[in-house]
Structures are given as structure tokens and as C-alpha cells.
Write a structure and sequence with these properties.
Structural class: alpha+beta
CATH superfamily of the largest domain: q2cbj1_9rhob like domain
Bound molecules: 2-oxoglutaric acid
Shape: globular
Strand content: 15-25%
Oligomer: single chain
CATH architecture of the largest domain: Sandwich
CATH class of the largest domain: Mainly Beta
Order of helices and strands: HEHEEHEHHEEEHEEEEHEEHHHH
Largest sheet: 10 strands, mixed
Number of domains: 2
Length: 319
């Protein structure tokens, strides 16, 4: 039996091949969005020590628990990887209605490997995700952006260049598609020339609450300029690798709704920030499999004991 989704999927794939984006208007209902926003607000209030923040006010990376309550309320920031500890975020990123669409567009089983929550615009420069989250297998990366509220044009809406995923990826010095700081000016020049040559133009996405925009690993996109810093633009962004690539990372894959999520440690923190944190058993043992093996063999009662005895002197991160 051919399902309604199978019928629509051919159109979705055609649009994605053409534009590098697929917009699903009103994909999530208010009833589906409310628990997600409530879970995010609970985490912001609790300020845990293992939620990594990129503070866009000062360019610093820290954790929620080292920020003052006032800074948490007022700073423009990226809240990283809530999916690791918050079930409501995983349920949205791996919604049973979304996973088959991601699967169809990626052509692979999707593995949630990163999440972002943005309360305000990111004002991020134009980029393609493959520059920073370069998949092991070219093309094995896809992202979904979810509007948690209507986006106002003054709040720095998402911007993208339809068709830009068809520009041949720039090859950096080492032969990789991964960004190298010293070559980014060349990359920008290359992209500007390619956009002009192909006649590709920027589009603004004035999202409505519940809309989902799925983008290709090589789609050029950005956070638009913010004209009114008081306005929020609440959104979640989810990135997914293919199952094949995610398995190669060595971290456990947890099945959910036909896809998986990658049970990995939090992103790297600057050593001076990490040094202020207690050992997180979960992240320490995930980050250092040799320590996890030693604890499993009974050589240490836990990760904290290893950190105190050796890890700290060896320059390992407690989280
Ligand atoms: O939401 C935005 O402003 C941009 C997010 C983004 O560019 C990304 O996650 O790669």
C-alpha cells in the first residue's frame, strides 16, 4: 500500500534536490511545541553545569550553571545539545512524523548528533554546515530548523540561498571540506563568485510558529541582521549524521522512532571553564573510553576518582 507520505516524498525529494531546502509549514502543532518550550524554560531556570552555552554577547563558551540568572535571561546565546539530557527535545528532533522525511531526504537513517536552542537571532555569517560539522562521508549530514514562535523581520530571521547546495564544495588546503580559519576569506570569495555566476539570491524565512525548514549540508544560510535586540526568535536547530557515519564515531546510538540519537559527551569547553566544574560521570566516561573501561574493571570506583588521581594532571576535561 502506498501511503500519503510516500506520495508526498517524491515531491519533497524533488524540491530538496532543486533548492537544498524543504519547508514544511505548520508541521508541529501548539500541543507538540508547548512541552518543548516548557522543558527548555525548566533547564534555563535550573542552570545545570553540563549544558554548554555559546554566549553570543561576548563570544565566550561556558555552561549555563556558571552564568548568572540575569545573564541567562538577557544574553543572546546558543544553548547546545539539550537533546543529551532533555527527552522533550529528543522527541521533537526525532518525531515519528519527521524521521521518515529526514530519512528520505538524506537517503540514510538519520542520527541526531547535535541540537541548538536559540531564543534570539544568531546573526551568524553565511555558512554551510559541512564546513564545521564535516561528515565522514560527503553529504551524510542534514539539518532541521523548527520555529517555536512566529519570526519577526526585526528579529534577524533565518536567511538562505536556494540552490546554493549545488555549488561544488570548496576544497581546503588539506584536501578536506572542513573549514580552515586562514582560508575562510578565500572560501567567501569562492562562494560569492559562484552565487553570482549561478544567479542565486538570498531569501528570508519569515517563519510561523510550528514551521520546519530542512536544509542540505551544503546549503548557504545565515542568521539575518537583528534590528531590534529586544525581540525574541525562538527556534531549535537539529543536525543529523547518517547511521553509517555516526557508528564510526564509537559513541552509542540510542534508537528512537526509526532514527537514533548519538549519546556523546558535551562539546569541548575551554580548559579554564572546565577546571571550574565538578566531574560529570556521564560526560567524563563517554569522553574517555579508557577510563570507562578502567572503572568497569573495578580499578576506580568512578570517573571522579580517576580524575582526582590522574585525569586532572593529565589535562583531561572533567566533563
Ligand atoms: O537560526 C539561525 O539563525 C542559524 C542557525 C544556523 O545557521 C545553524 O545552526 O547552522
Amino acid at each position: 500500500m502506498v501511503t500519503a507520505l510516500q506520495n508526498r516524498m517524491a515531491d519533497y525529494i524533488a524540491a530538496f534536490l532543486q533548492d537544498g531546502v524543504l519547508i514544511l509549514p505548520g508541521f508541529f502543532s501548539d500541543a507538540e511545541l508547548s512541552p518543548v518550550q516548557a522543558a527548555i524554560d525548566t533547564v534555563k531556570h535550573a542552570r545545570p553545569l553540563d549544558v554548554v552555552i555559546d554566549d553570543l554577547e561576548n563570544g565566550e563558551r561556558t555552561v549555563l550553571g556558571l552564568m548568572t540568572p540575569e545573564a541567562v535571561q538577557t544574553h543572546r546565546m546558543k544553548v547546545n545539545d539539550l537533546y543529551l539530557g532533555t527527552a522533550a527535545i529528543r522527541s521533537q528532533a526525532l518525531a515519528p512524523s519527521l524521521v521518515p522525511i529526514l530519512w528520505g531526504l538524506l537517503g540514510q537513517v538519520p542520527v541526531l548528533c547535535n541540537s541548538l536552542y536559540l531564543e534570539k537571532g544568531s546573526a551568524q555569517d553565511p555558512h554551510v554546515d559541512a564546513l564545521y560539522m564535516t561528515p565522514r562521508t560527503p553529504g551524510h549530514l542534514i539539518a532541521a530548523w523548527v520555529a517555536l514562535e512566529d519570526a519577526h523581520e526585526e528579529a534577524g530571521p533565518l536567511e538562505y540561498f536556494p540552490g546554493s547546495q549545488r555549488i561544488a564544495p570548496y576544497v581546503f588546503g588539506g584536501g578536506s571540506h572542513h573549514a580552515r580559519d586562514e582560508e575562510m576569506a578565500d572560501w567567501r570569495g569562492y562562494m560569492a563568485e559562484a552565487l553570482a555566476h549561478a544567479g542565486l539570491e538570498k531569501r528570508q524565512f519569515l517563519a510561523r510558529k510550528g514551521d520546519v525548514l530542512i536544509w542540505h549540508a551544503h546549503l548557504l544560510h545565515a542568521g539575518g541582521a537583528i534590528q531590534n535586540g529586544a525581540r525574541t526568535r525562538k527556534s531549535c536547530v537539529f543536525h543529523y549524521y547518517s547511521e553509517i557515519d555516526a557508528r564510526a564515531s564509537g559513541f552509542p546510538l540510542v534508537p528512537q522512532a526509526g532514527g537514533f540519537w548519538l549519546d556523546r559527551p558535551v562539546q569541548l569547553l575551554p580548559p579554564e571553564v572546565a577546571a571550574r566544574l565538578p566531574v560529570s560521570e556521564r560526560h567524563y566516561l563517554r569522553r574517555y573510553p579508557d577510563v570507562a573501561a578502567a572503572v568497569a574493571q573495578g580499578l576506580y570506583p568512578n570517573g571522579a576518582a580517576h580524575y582526582a588521581a590522574y585525569g586532572c594532571k593529565e589535562g583531561r576535561l572533567p566533563i
